[in-house]
Design brief:
The chain has 305 residues and is mostly helical. The chain contains 13 helices and no strands. Helix 2 packs parallel to helix 13.
């Protein structure tokens, strides 16, 4: 039990819903639009997607440790570290952390190969793209998460929106549909918002370590403006999904989740201490999960009636 608890903290399993929700949306899209739903394929897709997500979390911690970002966060006054601390505190040896990380990748790769044999070679395209985005987010020579030009935000939108939704849809149907792309946008943008707001917690440490996130490049005031605009864009995408038939009209109930999140923005000023951004981070996560659950429920109802 202790090892399981340590693994859950190291891999940050608590945020798995942000990957599992888009996979469920893609599979339900196949059920509603094509009448196709194979539970075994869905389960395998969930396992593979969960494994690549946890791999992404751990490989990011691994490379942030190599790059000195975690140590900077630990030593910067007021910064809130969001890594597990297992490497900086010596809880796990480096080789143990690396072995678990690459073990998760092996699970994801095995699932991808099996699904590609059953559903088609495009599954491997989705899988390889997801793995490359996960690895090179902080790994050299690309390290696009350090470049501060919006590359990391685009990567998150692809990794937690387009790829899992369209990929899960393809696994069920062996073809693609524009509605899967539309369906990926609200959940993908909301997840991008989570990761963007996450940078506010330790942007001073990131700056010290040379990690040029958009918060570092723009500063708090402009980054907060962008964060709020990203929230509005995500909910606009939800409306677009309804207009073009990717979601039924009652999925608009998810618009209600914007209210508590918007209230959090109202409590922030142009400059804030790092702890002041914890409610924003939590509010973003709650809005994403709640919106995702409402969209899932709406598709289930649409598929059954």
């Amino acid at each position: 039990m202790q090892r399981l608890t340590q693994f859950k903290k190291a891999a940050r399993t608590r945020v798995l819903p942000v990957m599992l929700i888009p996979v469920a949306l893609g599979a339900l899209g196949a059920f509603v639009w094509d009448g196709a739903f194979h539970f075994g394929l869905f389960l395998l897709t969930l396992i593979g997607s969960a494994a690549v997500h946890l791999f992404s979390n751990m490989i990011n911690d691994l490379w942030d440790y190599y790059n000195g970002t975690d140590e900077a966060a630990k030593s910067t006054e007021g910064a809130i570290s969001t890594n597990s601390g297992y490497l900086t505190n010596g809880t796990w040896q480096l080789r143990t952390f690396a072995a678990v990380t690459w073990g998760l990748f092996a699970v994801a790769a095995a699932c991808g190969i099996i699904l590609s044999i059953i559903s088609g070679w495009m599954v491997l395209v989705f899988g390889v793209l997801g793995a490359l985005l996960a690895y090179f987010y902080v790994a050299p020579p690309i390290r696009f998460g350090y470049r501060g030009k919006g590359y990391s935000e685009i990567a998150i939108l692809l990794s937690f929106g387009v790829l899992p939704v369209a990929g899960a849809y393809y696994v069920q149907t062996s073809h693609l549909d524009y509605r899967a792309l539309l369906l990926s946008l609200p959940i993908g943008l909301l997840t991008t918002l989570i990761l963007f707001n996450h940078h506010f917690l330790h942007w001073q440490a990131d700056k010290q370590a040379g990690k040029r996130t958009l918060v570092v490049v723009w500063g708090e005031r402009r980054a907060l403006q962008f964060s709020r605009s990203l929230m509005l864009l995500a909910y606009t995408a939800l409306i677009v999904c309804v207009i073009f038939g990717a979601l039924p009209f009652y999925a608009l109930l998810a618009l209600l989740t914007i209210w508590p999140l918007n209230k959090v923005y109202g409590k922030l000023t142009e400059t804030n201490p790092s702890p002041a951004y914890l409610p924003l981070m939590g509010g973003s996560l709650q809005a994403t999960i709640r919106s995702g659950i409402i969209m899932i429920a709406a598709l289930i109802v649409q598929g059954l009636i």
